Structures are given as C-alpha cells and as structure tokens.
Amino acid sequence: MTLAERVARHTTQVVLLTAVAVLSGLVLAQKLALGWLASALIVGVAAAIAMGFAHLSARRAALPGLRRMDDLARKTRAIAEQDDLGQRLVEIGEPEVARISRAVNELLDRVRDERERLAAETLRTRTMAEASPNGVLVVGPRGRIEYLNPAFERLFSLADSPIGLRPLEALEVAAVQRVVDEVVETGAAAELPATSGELEVLLLGVPLGDDGATMVVCSDVTRFRRAEQARTDFVTNVSHELRTPIAAIMGYAETLQGDELPKGSQRLVSAIARNGRRLSELFEDLLALAKIEARRRELPISRRKLKPLVDEALSTAHDRATSKGQTLEVDCPGDVTARINPQALVAIVSNLALNACNYTPEGGHISVTVRQEPDAAVVVVSDDGIGIERTQLARIFERFYRVDSGRARKDGGTGLGLAIVKHLCRASGADVSVESEVGQGSTFTVRFPAT
Ligand code: ADP
C-alpha cells in the first residue's frame, strides 16, 4: 500500500472513530440523565480519547515511510559527500520510497557513465597533446601555467616545472607572454614568430573559452626557415653572378648594332640585345623579390602624401601608353595621405600601370584613380584591355604564372611583377585585389592603411 493510501485510510478511520466516540458520549450522558455540564465533559473525554488513538494510529501509519525517506536523504547525501558513484540505494519500502530510490540510482548510473566518458575524452586529449611534436602550453584564467606537454619542455629547454608560474617568470622567451597577453586582450587568436636558443619557432595563441584561459601551440620552423633562407640566398647569388656576363653581352650587342654588319646579321644582333634585356630585367625582378622575402619583417611605414609618389610611379607607364596610342588618365588629389613605404608604393603602382598598358590593345584606355577613405587610401588601376578569366584570377599573383604565356612573354615582363606587388603589399600592410572580365578589362585595387 502506498504511503498516501495508508494516510488516507487512517484519516477516514480517525473521522469515524471520533464520530463514534462523540455519539457514544452523548448516548451515555442521555441515559444517565446528566446535566449539560457533565454531558459536555463526557463528550470531551470521549473526543480526547479518540484524538489520542488517532495520534497513535497516525504515527503507525506514516512514521515508517517518513523514516525511510529520511534515511534515503541521508544515504544520498553521504554518496554525494563521499563522491562514491559505485554505491546504490536499496529499492524497498513503500512504492513512493522505492520509486525515489530507483530514480536516484538511475541518476547515479548516468553521472557515472558521463564521468567515465569525460575521463576517457580527457585521457585521449592528453595523450594527443603528449604525443604531439608541437609544444602545447595552457595558461589558466589567472595567467598561471596549468599544463605543458613534453614537446614544449623540449623546445624551451625547461628543467624545472613551470606549473603555477606566469609564462614571463618561467620562460626566457618573452614572446610567449606577449602572445598570451594579446589573446586575452583581443579575445582572438594571435600568432608571433620567436627564437628559442638555436630554434626558430612560431607561436599560435588561441582562447580557451571566454574566461581568459589560453592555449599556446609552438611549432619548430627552423628547418623550414633555413630552407627558405637557402633558396633566397641561392636566387640572390645566381642573380648577382649572372648580372655581369649579361651586362657584357648586352653591351657588345648594342655596340655591334651601331656597326655596319653583313646582311641578315643585324636582325640576329637585335635579338641578342632584346633577349639580353629580358634576362637582365628577370634578374632584377628575382633580386627584388628575394630581397623582400629575405626581410620577412614588415617594411618601415610612415604617413605620406601619395600624389608625388604616384606621379613618379607612372612616368614609365606614360611613355609606354604614348608609344601604344593609349590614353592614361590619372586622378590623384594632392591631399590624399596614408601610412606607406614610399619605395613599395612606387613599385606597386608602377607594376600595375605597366601591366595595364601591356595587356591593353593599342588605342585602349587606362585610368589610375586615388581616393581617400576614413581608414585607407585606395589606388585603383583600371584598363579596358584583354581581361583575365575568373578561374585564373587567384593564380596571377604566383611567381611566373601567366594566363597566356606566349602572349605575356611577347607583351609583358618577367612573370614576377604581380608576385612582387603581392609581397610588397603584405610587407607594408596594404591589401591588393582584382576584378576582371575577359574582353572588357581589369581593375586592380590597392588599399593602403590610413591609420
Ligand atoms: P608579367 O610579367 O607576365 O606581366 P605579372 O606577374 O605582372 O607578369 O602578371 C602575371 C599575369 O597576369 C600576366 O602574365 C598576365 O597574364 C596577367 N595580367 C596581369 N595584369 C593584367 C592586366 N591588367 N590585364 C590582363 N592580364 C593581366
């Protein structure tokens, strides 16, 4: 029987018993022909006796169940305090009590399963971090190191445990603290190159949630940097070495061009001079690109007016446009300013304008417009030339990539112009983009930061 049914039955019994007691008292008082005071006394005594019984029977009906519930609460609290998820409650007693025990047991099953799943996941994550060749460091919300993997210890040659310390106190490389500070300040991922002893490393900081905890992943890029350096050195050396013989060949060819030559030879000598010039331009561009890449750091930039630099950059393009019967319109207000590197700006605008002339048929139109926006100075170089297919747009900034190599070799330059533009933009904080329609023309837009 449920506790509720038992209490209900008891209540009915109490009501009946009290009624019988009161009635019996009344009948007795009648029979004895007592006065009203004595009658009331007898009825009162009868009612009191009935109440006493009621109390005793109530205790018998409800108390065992309530005790078991109290017991249940105590045991549940003990399980929680001991954090012993292996224990279970006994599912006996009144149906209500047994149901509560069963529900608590099911809850304990679920908590245990969830805890086991979390433990397995934590173990997997930890094993992954331990086995990773990249260093992993976790800094807690209060800025103290909470975890680091063996690779991190190795990359930073740590002898003592830095757990509980700030990165700045524990590591000789201050860049780790800088990455952490930047992530906490911005709430976004941050990247920073650094050196640790002989090693060149790249630090990537990412926020772990929004309470200020940060993870720093450190990769060893020494081999990659050395290979990059070797490639740059090789290009620089080869270009340097080849410059002198090419200059000599061109010099001789140009001297010969002035001489009286046998029939047919003039054409050959002109070809030697023309190809010598191409080679020399190629080496100049390769050297320029190698220099920009070798710097790796950003170019120094300062706030400057753009007009004089744009005019300087366009002098060769004006000559080229005139020789091809093209119109080159320039609209650059004198007060436009931006934070730029002057040499980089001249090279960028000059390359884009010369390309516009090269890839626009005779009689075509080229325009260079410069405008000031709140956060940038925008330089737009447009032409109504041959245009570029949409599928090729992403590739034209690669070294030596040409949409139509035959034509580009004839009309264009070395195949390095846009690669130089892209690198110079990256190194000076600018951004270059292109839109084009085959047969309609191309528009290159460069945004130089104003703030
Ligand atoms: P190139 O020396 O061949 O001009 P670039 O790196 O300057 O090398 O340009 C790469 C390729 O992008 C060019 O070969 C050409 O196919 C394409 N290109 C560049 N600018 C334009 C333009 N304004 N119009 C059409 N095609 C262009």
Concise overview:
The chain is α+β, with helices and mostly antiparallel strands and 451 residues long. It is 56% helix and 17% strand.
Description:
There is one protein chain. The two termini are 81 Å apart. The protein has 4 domains: 3-100, no CATH class; 132-220, PAS domain (Beta-Lactamase, 2-Layer Sandwich); 226-294, Helix Hairpins (Orthogonal Bundle); 302-449, Histidine kinase-like ATPase, C-terminal domain (Heat Shock Protein 90, 2-Layer Sandwich), CATH 3.30.565.10. It is an alpha+beta fold and 451 residues long. A hairpin with a 5-residue loop joins β1 and β2 (145-148). The strands form 3 sheets. It has a 5-stranded antiparallel beta sheet with strand order 2-1-5-4-3. It has helices at 3-31, 36-82, 95-131, 150-155, 167-170, 175-186, 222-258, 265-295, 307-313, 315-323, 342-358, 405-411, 417-427; strands spanning 135-139, 145-148, 190-196, 199-207, 214-220, 302-305, 327-331, 337-340, 365-373, 376-383, 431-437, 441-449. It binds adenosine-5'-diphosphate. Adenosine-5'-diphosphate binds at residues 355-356, 358-359, 383, 385-388, 396, 401-404, 408, 412-419, 442.
